[in-house]
Amino acid sequence: MAYKVLLNEDEIPRQWYNLAADLPHPPLPPLGPDGNPIGPEALAPVFPMNLIEQEVSSERWIDIPQEILEILYRWRPSPLHRAVHLEKALGTPAKIYYKNESVSPAGSHKPNTAVPQAWYNKQFGIKKLTTETGAGQWGSALSFACSLLGLECKVFMVRISFDQKPFRKVMMETWGGTCIASPSTETQAGRDVLAQFPDTPGSLGIAISEAIEAAVTDATGQTRYSLGSVLNHVMLHQTIIGLEAKKQLEKAGEKKVDVVIACAGGGSNFAGLAFPFVNDKIHGADIEIIPVEPASCPTMTKAPYAYDHGDLARMTPLLAMHTLGHAFIPPPIHAGGLRYHGMAPLVSRAIVEGLVRPESIQQLECYEAAITFARTEGIIVAPETSHAVASAIRAARQAKEEGKEKVILFGLSGHGLMDLLGYQKYLAGQLTNHELSTADMAKSLNAIKDFPKIPA
Amino acid sequence: MAYKVLLNEDEIPRQWYNLAADLPHPPLPPLGPDGNPIGPEALAPVFPMNLIEQEVSSERWIDIPQEILEILYRWRPSPLHRAVHLEKALGTPAKIYYKNESVSPAGSHKPNTAVPQAWYNKQFGIKKLTTETGAGQWGSALSFACSLLGLECKVFMVRISFDQKPFRKVMMETWGGTCIASPSTETQAGRDVLAQFPDTPGSLGIAISEAIEAAVTDATGQTRYSLGSVLNHVMLHQTIIGLEAKKQLEKAGEKKVDVVIACAGGGSNFAGLAFPFVNDKIHGADIEIIPVEPASCPTMTKAPYAYDHGDLARMTPLLAMHTLGHAFIPPPIHAGGLRYHGMAPLVSRAIVEGLVRPESIQQLECYEAAITFARTEGIIVAPETSHAVASAIRAARQAKEEGKEKVILFGLSGHGLMDLLGYQKYLAGQLTNHELSTADMAKSLNAIKDFPKIPA
Q: By the number of CB atoms within 10 A of the CB, which of A289, A409, B160, B370 ranks highest?
C-alpha cells in the first residue's frame, strides 16, 4: 500500500471541468442595477474579456494553456495522501484520503486560479491587478502569481487581519506585491466607511469594493480586478484539484468514493475538489458530497438562495446565491477564509438541485480535529481546512458505527503555519463557539428584502 | 523536460550512507575530561545505546528500519526541482537543480533525523526526549516526531528566538511538545547563567547545556537528550536526502553533477545532501562540493580545526572540529540555524581532507538571492537556505562567464514562512552585513587554548 499517490507532470489534467454544462438547470444570470440580466460587456471594466468568456461559458471542458501548466508544475500535480495514521487513531474501517494543496509555495489551493487569472490578464495586455484578501491566503497567492508573470499586484487586506498577521504583508512584498489595510483612504468606498466608522475592523465586502474601485478608476486602463473565489471562472480553474484526485484514487485502486468533503467560504476550494465528483453524481454515481462551513457564518445551511451583491458598496452585479446579506459581519472566528456572506452561484445551484449536502461545524470541534490530525498525520492545517478535517472525522466515525468500509476523500486546502494564533488561543482554552442567531440573520437579510426575487 | 523529478515510495533509499567508512583517515575520537578517548558507555546517560552504536559505527551502509520509512512516507521521497525560471532570469547555460526539503510538515530537513532518533529512543524504552533549538526548526521537528511516536518532548529555546518567534512555540505545542525559554530556572546551567547575566538573549551553547542536564538528571532514567546536528548519527540519517537526489538526477538524465551546494550550521543539512557525492569524489569523480556559512560565523572558512566542547557549560565531550570556541556568541544575523560555534566532526574532517571547499557569504547577498528565487521559482526559502541559493547563483554566473553548461545541485533545506522577520527588515533596508574580525575571533578562541591538541 502507498501512503501517497503521486502523478507525474505528464499526467496532469489538460482541461478544466465546467459544471455549468452539466447542471440540470442552467445557472441564473447576474443582474444589473436595473434588475435585468447583464451581458459580458458590462463586466469589461472589471475583468479582461478572455476571463469573461470563461465566466459565461457553457462548454464542458476548457483547455488549459501549456504556459499555465508550466507554471503550475512548480508544485502540481499535488499529492494524494492516505491518512493511515488518522484511521488507526479513530479505529475506523473507513479509508480516508486527502488531497494536499498545502504544498504550493503560497501554502494553499489559491494559486490554482491566481496563476491562470494573472496569465489571461497578461495575454489581454493588462499590467496590474487589484484584489482584496481576508485571512491573507488569496492576497499571497495573487502576489505570487503576478510575481512569476511580471504583473504589478495591489492587495486590500481586511484591517483586522492586516494588524493581526503582519507577516502576510511581508509574504506579499517578498513576491513584489503591495498590501494596504482596508478600509483605506485610497478609494471613495474606503473613505466613506472610515468617515462613519473610523475604528472599523474592516470586512471582505468593504475590501472587495475598494479593490474594484481601484481597478475601474485607474486612468491607464491597464488595471483589472481579480477575485479569488465565488465566480464561475474561479471554480473552473480549481477543478484541476478534483480531476487530479480522481486519477489518483484510480491509481490507488479505488473503484468508488463514498464521501467527498471540502470546506467552503466563497466556494472555490469546495468546487475545485468536488465538481468532478458532482458530475459523476449527476450521471448516477452514489456519492455524498459535503461542503462544510462554520456555524457562525451559515451561508449554505441557514441562509436563503437569493439575489445579492458580492460586496458591501454594491459595486458587483446581483448574483443568485446563498447569502446572509452583503452587510453581514461574522463573529471573530479564526477561519478568516470562511467568513464571507455569500456562496458561489455554481455551488449554491448545486445545493438547490440537491446534488450536495452542506454541513456546518462549530469552531471548537474544528480545532480539536486539527490537533488530532497534526498529532497523527503530522500536518498543521489552516483553520479553514480544519472544518473539512472535522467533517471527515465525523464521516469516519459514522462508518465505524455502521461497520462500513467507506472511502472518504477530503480537501486539505492549506497549511496553518501563517495562522497559528488560533491554535495558540485554542490550546490556551481561550476560544469559544459562535452560532448565528435567527434574529441576527433576519436583521442582516433585511438589507436585501427589496432586491429582485429568484423565479420559482 | 520535467520541472520536477519525483520518486515513488518504493524507490526510497533503504540504507543510510556513512561517510566515516570512506574517509581517507578515520574520524578522530571524542575525548573525555581527562583528555583520553571516551568509549560508547560514557555517552549512555545522554543517548540510547542503539544510537550510540550508529554514532561510532564504521559500517558503510546502515539499514533504515521499515517502520521509520513508513513515517517518512508522509512527505518522502521529496521532490527534486529544475530551477528553469531562475536559470532564465540569470541567463546562465548552467542547469540548476534543487532538492526540496521544505515539503516536510515541519518545513525543513530536520524531521529526517528527528523521526529516527525518536524511533530508536522508543525502541530502547525511553519515554521522553529533551533538546535545544535556536531558530526553532529543530525543536519543531523533534516535537513533530515525538508526537507521531507517542514520546514526550521538552525543548529549551534560545530566549531571543523564543521572544521573537512566539509561533514556533505554538507549533511545538500543537504537536504536544513543551517549549521554554533558555536560559531557564529549571537547570543548574540555566540558573548559573541567569545569576551572572539576567538579561542574556541566550545561545545555542547554553540551551544545549540545559537540555543535556535535564535529560541526565531525570530521576526516572527514561529521559534522553536528542541533538539535531553535529553528531555522526545525525549526519547519517540525513544522507537520505543526497541518496534520493542521486537517483533523481539519474532519472533526469544527468550523467554527472558538477557542483553540489548546501548551507552548513552544525553540518547535518550539508552532510545529508553532500556526503553521497563526497563518496563519489573520493572514488575519483570531479565534483566541487561547497558547504556555505555566514561571514558573521565563519566556522569553516576561518576557524581552526581543534578539540572543543559542543556547549557552553562544557558538558559534552571534546570533539575534533572546526570551532570558534564554545563561548562564541555570533552577531544577530537572521539565519539562526547557522550561528553555531562548531561544525560537525565528519564535515570538519572532509574539509581537512580537501574533499569539500567551504564558502562564506554576507547576509545582504543572501537575502538578495532569496528575493530573486522567490520571484522566479516561487518558494520563500528559510534564511539559512538563502546561503545555498546565493552560492548557487554565484556558481551559475561563473558558468555563464566560462560559457560552460554545468550541472549545479543545491539543497533547499526549508521554507521561510516562520522566519519572515528577516525578509521584512531586508525589504525595509534595515539589515546590514556582519563580518567577524580577527581580533574578536582570537578572543573567542582564547577559551580553548589549553585544550588537548589535534595530532598533526
A: A409
